[in-house]
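Protocol step 4 of 6: structure prediction from sequence.
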Amino acid sequence: MRGIGAVLRREREKRKFTLDDIAEKTKIRTKYLQAIEDEEFEILPGAVYVRGFISSYIKCLGIGDLPEVQEIMQTDTAVQENAQEEEKAVVQARERTKPQKIEEEPLNKKSSVIILLSVLAVCALLAVQWLFSGGLSNDVQEKVPPQVEQQPEENLPVEPVEPVVPAQPIYEGLVMELTIIDLTVGVQDKCWLEVKGDGVQILNTTLVEGQTVQLEAKEILNLHLGNAGVVQITLNGQDLGTMGEKGKVVTREFTLNDVAQ
């Protein structure tokens, strides 16, 4: 999204807003807003937040209908689509370069008849030679190779094979996944939730069933759930289930001490 930072800074200063004013309205940390204006997107907590933070900034300033803003956002979407198409083309090229199995064509009917006649002719020639030679000579005895007595295999001890245990992922902080489950048949379950990571708000939205969001923090995650019964929580790979009954408002704090070592 190169170019969006300068546009946001220009429109913010035109409205005489400070970064602190925008942070208060959007609930986005000031240092992240500064990183967006400087187009230092690597400072943001993750790629999934870049487009969301920029969209919130644009909405706060009310500049979503500016042609240059629309062009930048559409160009970014096109770049992502082109990258996906290029990756798909590379995969297809790899499939085409794989060696193809060459199947031999089956013999046609004419070739089969010729081979059969050739075999019969050879057999007839051998039979004629045997008749004219007076049959098998009595002096010629069929040599039968001596049978070798098979020795029984020794019962060697079999060493037990230890099962391979997959390596567990290593977490340097807190990684949480929130998933809205389908708890009520025929009704779309949803939940409003607010999440703070290390004292800073990182999420304030409403999710519907089937949606999943991943959150990260170094030491502390604070959850405020408006419908705890429909939120499935996984913390550092551990399934914690739900935090309460459907329709119940729950506030919960998780720290590194809550994760089993």
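Step 5 (inspection) to follow. Strands lie at 174-180, 190-197, 200-208, 212-217, 220-225, 231-235, 238-241, 250-255.
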